[in-house]
Amino acid sequence: MKKSLAIIPARGGSQRIPNKNIKIFNGKPLIYYPIIQAIQSGIFDKIIVDTDSLEIAKVAIRYGAEVPFLRPEHLATSQAKIGDVIEFLLRKLKEEHKYQPHIITLLQTTSPLRELEDINACYELISKPKIKSVCTITETHPRFYQLNKNSQLILVNKETDKTTNTTEMQKGYILNGCMVYMIKTNVFLQTKKFVDEHTVGVITPKWRSVDLDHPEDWVLAEFLHKHKDKIDERLKRF
């Protein structure tokens, strides 16, 4: 079996939700969820939490992840790019631990509604020789807008302006809170990006696509997580 690495980024200085990565979410620290899912999937030979915080590192190790070293200060700011963070981690693993995976998987702590089936579906695809990268996506309204500096609406996909009937529009999709990103290591090292024009999308349900950026996201996600079995059961009736 080719080497497969799960990386769980967990910076210590979360701003909108203080100590987010180890804040208790339905009875467990938030970081527990991606760690336990990575372990249960059985597809990773290494599960690493990448953090600059000793406190987060201790919690991560307690639940079964590795923290071989702490992230350096210059990569622990809110401006640091995830591509640079992962490149540094890979280089350090290769130089100091003689380890280089064939596949990298990024599991964000901020997606607590991710399920094992999402990870497995992505892995099944990325294991195919011709597929370079995979990520989870969710369906969105095909007509969506951005705001310019004057708060005026700018239609992103102008093709949708030709009709008001959504059934006639091409479906739209968005990345859903970084639930799962998988990429071949050699592909990542060329661009330091997880998504490009070659990336294959795995569609996941809208209701599980909450990304914990703001306190209201947290409250909503806790409710959904607590009642997810009931939600699944109700949805099957439609």
UniProtKB/TrEMBL annotation:
Any GO molecular function: N-acylneuraminate cytidylyltransferase activity
Superkingdom of source: Bacteria
Native source organism of the sequence: Candidatus Zambryskibacteria bacterium RIFOXYC1_FULL_39_10
CDD domains: CMP-NeuAc_Synthase
One Pfam family this sequence matches: CTP_transf_3
Name under which the protein is recorded: Acylneuraminate cytidylyltransferase
